[in-house]
Amino acid sequence: MSEQKQKKVKSASVLHEETTNNEVQTAKTYVVKQDEKLAGIATKLGVSVGELVEKNKLDSYKLKVGQELVL
Predict the structure, then answer these.
(1) pLDDT at residue 65 above 50?
(2) Does residue 18 sit in helix, strand or coil?
(3) pLDDT of the residue at 6
(4) pLDDT tier at 1 (50, 70, 90 boundaries)?
(5) What is d(CA 27, CA 29) in angstroms, rounded to the nearest whole number?
(6) How many other CB atoms are found less than 10 A from the CB of residue 69?
(7) What are φ and ψ of residue 18, in 5° steps?
(8) Closest residue by Cα to residue 61 from 70, 49, 69, 46
(9) Reduced to 3 states, what is the DSSP secondary structure of residue 49?
(10) Are 67 and 34 in contact (CB under 8 A)?
(11) How do strand 68-70 and strand 29-31 relate by DSSP bridges?
């Protein structure tokens, strides 16, 4: 492979790593407080209950105080 092609390959992989890192850093979470319900959290944050269930792979609607939900 020519030196110029090798540089392009290296540049592309670095760009991918930066994009991946940015995606991880921009992920938002919400910490469940006492007496909160999934529907109330969804309404407060402007998302559907289904979205929260899917993103967090929840088996039930029961939440625990201190549980982190991915938004």
Answers:
(1) yes
(2) helix
(3) 44
(4) low
(5) 7
(6) 21
(7) -65, -45
(8) 49
(9) helix
(10) no
(11) antiparallel
Nearest CA-CA partner of 49 in 39, 40, 63, 37: 39
Q: 3-class DSSP state for residue 30?
A: strand
How does DSSP classify residue 70? E
Backbone angles phi, psi at 30, to 5 degrees: -130, 130
The identity of residue 52, as a single letter, is L
What pLDDT score was predicted for residue 70? Answer: 94
Q: What is the pLDDT of residues 3-55, one digit of tens each?
A: 544 444 343 333 334 444 544 446 799 999 999 999 999 999 999 999 999 99
Two structure tokens written together for 70: 């991915």
- Look at residue 14 in the predicted model and tell me its pLDDT: 38
Hey, what amino acid is at 17? E
9: its two tokens: 């390959």
